[in-house]
Amino acid sequence: MRIKKGKKGLSPIITTVLLITLTIVIIAIVFLWFRGMVQEGITKFGKNIQLVCNDVQFDASYSSGTVNIVNNGNVPLYRINIKTSSSGGSYLTKDIKDLSDSWPTTGLKQGGTFSAALNLENPTKITLFPVLIGTSTSGKKTFVCEGQYGKDVL
Which residues does residue 128 pair with via DSSP β-bridges, in sequence order? Predict the structure, then answer.
């Protein structure tokens, strides 16, 4: 094999810079991917807000277009999410603040009651989910206690 004169490869400095740049890009991609998977921690009463959902106790009923909610627990309810299902299988989730202007701005405190007429267009099922407010590193954030914490009222 003969080596042609005048042909040179990449210098070691350029190769090192390319290798370091490639490593930094891969680390940034992995960091952003992992950051998207981790949920920001929200606390209430010094506990993870998901654990506080176990302490939420409220009663609710729906009759003739009027919803009644009573907070029986020690945890204030910042809002309520209303999930309605129709006979076609579709569902819609709305914040109670979107449906009623009379919801208290500071939330429903312990022992508080709320009653309002809601326009819900003939749903076949209505489920109410409590919404709590807690603190995180970026300020106050809301958290919806979904799943087993919902109350079926229709």
Answer: 82, 151
Integer Cα distance of 12 and 83 in angstroms: 63
Residues 6+ apart with CB under 8 A from 70: 58, 59, 60, 111, 112, 113, 114
Distance, CA of 104 to CA of 95 (rounded, Å): 13
User: Which whole-number Å values give the CA distances from 73 to 31, 70, 78, in the listed order?
Assistant: 40, 9, 13
Angstrom distances, CA of residue 27 to CA of 21, 22, 23, 24, 66: 10, 9, 6, 5, 54
Q: What is the pLDDT of residues 84-96, one digit of tens each?
A: 888 777 777 788 7
Q: Give the pLDDT of residue 94.
A: 82
Its pTM stands at: 0.70
